[in-house]
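Might I ask for a little of your time on a matter of protein folding? Here, with my thanks, is the record as I have it:
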Amino acid sequence: MKISQAVGNACTVPASSVETHNNNPSKESKIIYLPGTNCEIKSQALLSAFTSYRVGGAAELYVAPRNIEALQASLRYAQEHNLRVTTLGAGSNLLVSDRGISGLVIATRHLRYTHFDHQTGQVTIAAGESIPSLAWEIAKLGWQGFEWAVGIPGTVGGAVVMNAGAHNSCIADILVSAQVLSPDGTVETLTPEELGYAYRTSLLQGSNRVVTQATFQLQPGFDPAYVTATTKQHKQMRLTTQPYNFPSCGSVFRNPKPYSAGWLIEQSGLKGYQIGGAQVAHLHANFIVNRGGAKANDIFCLIRHIQQEVQERWSILLEPEVKMLGEFQAA
């Protein structure tokens, strides 16, 4: 079994937010109940509702556990049936193929809890918690160290896996440990050193382990008004420099030191360049936005076009930061 990271009642598949999509008319949508839990797995669940690009096909199987026991049961099911597993957080750094994803998609968005230790200044957060919401909550307590993360549109699990960062700060700077779950149900607690952090990556990417929670070291005891004001400054900076009026995945490419990917793309004359409904943003060239009606393959083809143009002009091959899942068709 291979796992891709991307990231109360045991688990739920909300009828209001999960649509079904049958890529193959011979396949029927069905619900699988996992023994010993209230957990149910749904087939042919459309993933566009769960990605920030608002594109993508269906998951062959989809489940959203609400606790560790349900997550373990889901992983056991995948292992027993030799299914590929993809972990889905907020879907904010993800491009899902129009053809969908085979195997089991496990959404961690319902793994939600936060514990503040006011003596040590440490906070333990479940994988499904929203990074921006946490940044505001932490600021209102007067704790410093998380202000920079307010503009990161993801969940804790995904942020830990990719070492998310902004404003010259990143997850590795504040992480104490991450709890991860192996396919056999084994729970491990890993330090930043054991995670092998580097720029926007960790050893968890492409591994067979799922982040369940993380503990961060912050600095309590500051004026909440001051920390909140600093957090607002970080948010405002992102609002004025990055496009939020159309769906996107955030930064598409990693910055190839010493250059900025956005600068290379802009200098290649690609701002505003469009394929189908996908466009290089005018405000920030390292963003590709869905102008409306875009297909995942439009975005994929635009990514490839940008890579070709930048490499031809600058002899630099831009490396995508966005994770692409499924099969795509080059133009």
